[in-house]
Specification:
- Helix 1 crosses helix 6 and helix 3 packs parallel to helix 4.
- The chain has a single domain, classed as Rossmann fold.
- The longest helix has 19 residues.
- It has eight helices and twelve strands.
- Strands 3-2-1-4-5-6-10 form a seven-stranded parallel sheet, sandwiched between helices. The protein has a three-stranded mixed sheet with strand order 7-8-12. Strands 9-11 form a two-stranded antiparallel ribbon.
- With 231 residues, it is of the alpha/beta class.
- The structure holds NADP nicotinamide-adenine-dinucleotide phosphate (NAP).
- NADP nicotinamide-adenine-dinucleotide phosphate (NAP) binds next to helix 1, helix 3 and strand 5.
Length: 231
């Protein structure tokens, strides 16, 4: 049993990690830039810290044996948060004597010329060179992310999506299970990637998503622009 600091503890993955770490008997410390909402800090410690400035980081890592680093700014300033923020976190973790840092990354990022993915690769490199024992797990896209994307793209009565795009989405709860397993194991370096059980086209996922909501919309196929989707 360890004290586990979860950076990004309020995000999609962090929310899935929290009950699993509690169930495994760990002391859980959630890190966020904000104060907890009413009841949100029940059964956990709460650390307010910002990776992009370093504010609060020393106190957040103090006394933690393991860090699961799941904070990220995929739609924000990923250089300051994911690259410089990871550097700041590693420095603080080194000073605090953290024994194991578990990092969640994304499958296939070295094949896609996309700024956020370059920043994730840079964060991986910083961790590998930090001297802090680590495990790195790369996962495919979470169902919750596909859900968020479709919520934005489906505008009744039309859904404009890149129907040919292939994805291998995964349940974020299963990724959280794997991270909890890694956190309780010896540092393992880069471990095999973690993907969902099926490769599906975006058009098919959209049809399933609409059916599950009993919604009807005309699916219009349009290739998404840019290197991210091409990758
Ligand atoms: N989503 C996917 O499909 C997917 C797939 C594979 C891997 N991943 C990786 O899994 C990790 C978690 O993804 P997610 O989708 O769960 O993320 P998310 O829901 O977008 O949550 C992001 C988290 O990062 C925290 N954060 C952002 N900027 C921060 C800063 N400057 N300082 C401290 N905390 C900050 C946020 O906390 P506050 O807002 O509370 O401060 C929030 O808890 C990321 O590293 C991502 O690359 C995601």
């Amino acid at each position: 049993m360890s004290r586990v600091l979860v950076t990004g503890g309020t995000g999609i993955l962090g929310t899935a990690l929290r009950p699993r770490l509690n169930m495994a008997g760990h002391t859980v410390r959630i890190m966020s830039r904000r104060t907890p909402k009413p009841g949100e800090d029940q059964g956990v410690e709460w650390a307010q810290a910002d990776l992009s400035t370093g504010d609060g980081l020393a106190a957040a890592v103090e006394g933690a044996e393991v860090i699961i680093h799941a904070a990220s700014a995929g739609f924000g300033d990923s250089y300051q948060t994911d690259v410089e923020g990871t550097r700041r976190l590693l420095e603080a973790a080194g000073r605090a004597g953290v024994q194991h840092l578990v990092y969640i990354s994304i499958a296939g990022i070295e094949h896609v010329d996309y700024e956020y993915y370059r920043h994730k690769l840079e964060a991986e490199r910083l961790i590998e060179q930090s001297g802090i024992p680590y495990s790195i797990l790369r996962a495919t896209q979470f169902y919750a992310l596909i859900d968020e994307i479709l919520k934005r793209l489906v505008r009744f009565p039309i859904a404009v999506v890149d129907t040919r795009l292939t994805l291998q989405p995964v349940d974020e709860g299963e990724v959280a299970d794997r991270l909890v397993e890694l956190a309780a194991s010896e540092p393992s370096g880069r471990v095999p990637d973690f993907g969902g059980p099926e490769i599906r086209r975006m058009g098919e996922l959209t049809r399933v998503w609409l059916a599950a909501r009993d919604m009807h919309a005309l699916i219009v196929g349009l290739p998404f622009p840019g290197a991210l989707w091409a990758g």
